[in-house]
Amino acid sequence: MDNNQTYRDKKVMGIGIVTEITGLSNRKIRYYELRKLIFPERTPSGTRKYSFSDVERLMEIAEKIEDGVQTHEIRKDIVKKEKHKMIIGQINSHFNRNGYK
């Protein structure tokens, strides 16, 4: 496991558990993956593995879909949030390397 990875980000759950937690069908979850809204890891045998963060994202996606938001709009929002997280991480890394706390 990556040292920066928290328990929330570790991919440990199969799709069956995720469907139980979220109430979403396997088909919907796979569709969200196809639309590049969720990114499960694959085991060598091809089994999808999800994290607690993935479950949270799936719940957010389901709520937005229910509110009428299109998948391409959700994807744009996800990309924007990921870019923001990356920039914040780079800024924090820069200050930590240079002795600022």
UniProtKB/TrEMBL annotation:
Pfam families xrefs: MerR_1 (PF13411)
Signal sequence range: none
Record domain HTH merR-type: where: 12-81
Any GO molecular function: DNA-binding transcription factor activity
InterPro entries: DNA-bd_dom_put_sf, MerR-type_HTH_dom, MerR_fam
Keywords: DNA-binding, Repressor, Transcription, Transcription regulation
Protein name: MerR-like DNA binding protein
